[in-house]
Design a protein that fits this description.
This protein has 336 residues and is an alpha+beta fold. It is built from 14 helices and 15 strands. Strand 10 and strand 11 form a beta hairpin. Helix 7 runs antiparallel to helix 8, helix 7 crosses helix 9 and helix 8 runs parallel beside helix 10.
Length: 336
């Protein structure tokens, strides 16, 4: 991974490209004496022992990427190329965190290894033996599973239903995988028997893309209101794109927009939201706007507003000039 000159000398660019990490096996193979490794990694020395047999060749603290790669180096078979993804691959929350998935936990880092091989875990690394070895990719230089497998491995070990909902929704919303592919992966991992995972998968198949939308869907399911389309793409009658509201009732021309303050910190973002609403209303779509906290804390008020607009829509002289395209309500597969 690094030459002896790069360890002991002053050549910095190449180690930086490799995250300044190396295993004891790599250091010895590169000609660094065992005693040198020990002395340099003592407290106050120029190197740090991050994990058993894994060293950070710098004095500063490791960043998220270095911690993730160190976990893979620890889990890889000693004689293998640890960057190949053949014997160890980052997965679960740590892999999703490298992709920028919000709230995905980076520790402990889940790392796949081939079953029946066993490896002791540490407080920051959780080796996961598997007989279903996946195709691997590289995320920021770290051998990892594809996002769809990382999401399934995260769901397998998460306990909080809202965390499962939110994280899986973010993976799909960010475009890292299609909900149907995620559903297939969850089924292959035999995870759809878990109520929280099954519910999250059903929401994604229905078009839900955030936990706020999931809560809105839960609220609507307990009423006599018709089921909406979720995240449908609306176009003008001439085919120009209008908007993609969170929920849309095509027969009535009513939309529900869930606007979080988190995305409206800037003036431009707020203006973009107002312009989207104006486009919808200019084409006859009636819009109810609510925040995630309103959905959570005052669902009756949101339902009352929706009920009023859905009722008014039936007496309008002209239908809305908007068409929902490119959307299909998918059926949820039954599992045994």
């Amino acid at each position: 991974m690094i030459t002896p000159q790069q360890h002991i000398g002053t050549s910095a660019p190449a180690p930086r490209r490799r995250c300044n990490l190396a295993t004891r096996h790599q250091l010895i193979a590169a000609g660094v004496p065992d005693g040198t490794i020990t002395s340099r990694s003592r407290p106050g020395g120029p190197w740090q022992r991050l994990l058993p047999r894994v060293y950070l060749l710098q004095t500063g603290p490791p960043d998220q990427r270095q911690r993730a790669l160190a976990a893979v180096l620890y889990a890889a078979e000693p004689a293998s190329d640890p960057l190949s993804g053949d014997t160890a691959a980052l997965t679960g929350g740590a892999a999703l965190a490298l992709l920028g998935i919000r709230d995905a936990p980076s520790t402990p880092a889940d790392v796949l290894i081939h079953a029946p091989r066993r490896l002791a875990g540490t407080p920051v690394v959780r080796p996961l033996p598997t007989t279903r070895w996946p195709r691997t990719i590289t995320i920021s230089g770290v051998p990892s599973t594809r996002p769809v497998r990382a999401a399934a491995d995260f769901a397998a070990r998460a306990e909080d239903p809202d965390r499962i909902r939110s994280t899986l929704a973010h993976v799909v919303q960010a475009g890292w995988c299609h909900p149907q592919d995620l559903h297939t992966e969850l089924r292959a991992a035999r995870l759809l028997g878990r109520p929280a995972v099954r519910a999250a998968a059903a929401e994604l198949l229905a078009g839900v893309r955030s936990i706020a939308e999931a809560r809105a869907r839960d609220t609507l399911k307990g009423t006599d209101l018709p089921a909406p389309l979720w995240n449908a793409r609306l176009h003008t009658l001439e085919g120009a794109f209008l908007a993609s509201p969170d929920a849309y009732w095509p027969d009535e021309g009513v939309a529900l927009e869930i606007d979080s303050a988190e995305y409206h910190y800037t003036r431009d973002a707020w203006h973009a939201t107002l312009r989207r609403r104006l486009r919808l209303e200019a084409h006859g779509v009636l819009v109810v706007s609510a925040t995630p906290s309103m959905i959570r804390d005052s669902p009756a008020e949101v339902l009352a507003a929706l009920r009023t607009l859905l009722t008014l829509a039936g007496s309008r002289p002209a239908p809305p000039e908007a068409l929902a395209r490119g959307h299909q309500q998918l059926l949820l597969f039954r599992t045994g």
